[in-house]
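Long-time lurker. I teach an intro course on protein structure, and each term I like to show students one example going from raw sequence to a predicted 3D structure in token notation. This year I'd like something fresh instead of my usual example. Would anyone be willing to generate the tokens for the chain below so I can use it in lecture? Attribution to the forum is fine with me.
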Amino acid sequence: MRLALACLALATIAAPAFAQHAALDPQTAVYELRIYYPAPGKLAALNARFREHTLKLFEKHGMRNVAYWNEQPTKDAPEGRVIYVLAYPSREAREADWKAFGADPEWRAVVAQSEAAGKLVTKVDSVFMTMADYSPPITLPR
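-- Reply from a regular --
Happy to contribute to a lecture. Here you go:
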């Protein structure tokens, strides 16, 4: 259910995120929904890493930041989880972007510094999506 709600929310907020990346067609893009399970007590540090470093580095490597959410706490995730959506022109582009991102010395330094007191994430779920033919279109601003 939460996954469905996140996907629905994507349709309403995606247009502003694509304004910076007009070459990417939002109707044919490949979207990746990622769910991060923070290690106990590490949610604030994980959010800080995204806020201060990760989004900029994603952009540097061609990934399109669409939207980010903090899940409300639940029994299974007492601190909540970080849920976000990225977009790419294709799965091949996604693979190349993540390979370059993972090898980036700046990213490696950020990870080393932010995880000096322990890992921030215990698990990551990833779901790949494309727009359904019945989805309302996303209009890019000119």
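Some talking points for your students: The CA atoms of residues 68 and 84 lie 4 Å apart. The longest helix spans residues 43-60.
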